[in-house]
């Protein structure tokens, strides 16, 4: 498999892209690399992808009721698959409740 950084570099439109554009493109590439030919992930694959690629954000969230609801929904309904749009909603939901997000917000920037 081709590394994400190399895949990113191959997208000419991102050559002068902003940090945010590159972050979004990275998310899309990670998802696409894991998705099936129809562009979807099983719920088990989604859970695994979150654990391996988003661990810093979900670490320590296990006791939060909303986190438990999200993860238990991934453990149910084995046949339903997640598309990119649903994956992004899930990703944003988990990020918003994360302790890491609060830590990021508290980072001081200097010039």
TrEMBL record:
CDD domains: S-100. Residues 20-59 form the S100/CaBP-9k-type calcium binding subdomain domain. InterPro entries: EF-hand-dom_pair (IPR011992), S-100_dom (IPR034325), S100_Ca-bd_sub (IPR013787). One of its GO terms (molecular function) is transition metal ion binding. Gene3D superfamilies: EF-hand (1.10.238.10). This is Sentan. It comes from Chlamydotis macqueenii (Macqueen's bustard).
């Amino acid at each position: 498999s081709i590394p994400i950084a190399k895949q990113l570099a191959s997208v000419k439109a991102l050559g002068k892209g902003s940090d945010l554009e590159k972050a979004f493109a990275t998310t899309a590439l990670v998802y696409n690399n894991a998705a099936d030919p129809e562009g979807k992930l099983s719920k088990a694959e989604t859970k695994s992808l979150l654990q391996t690629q988003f661990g810093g954000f979900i670490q320590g969230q296990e006791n939060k009721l909303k986190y438990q609801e999200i993860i238990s929904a991934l453990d149910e309904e084995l046949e339903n698959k997640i598309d990119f749009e649903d994956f992004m909603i899930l990703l944003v939901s988990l990020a918003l409740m994360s302790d890491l997000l609060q830590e990021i917000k508290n980072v001081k920037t200097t010039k």
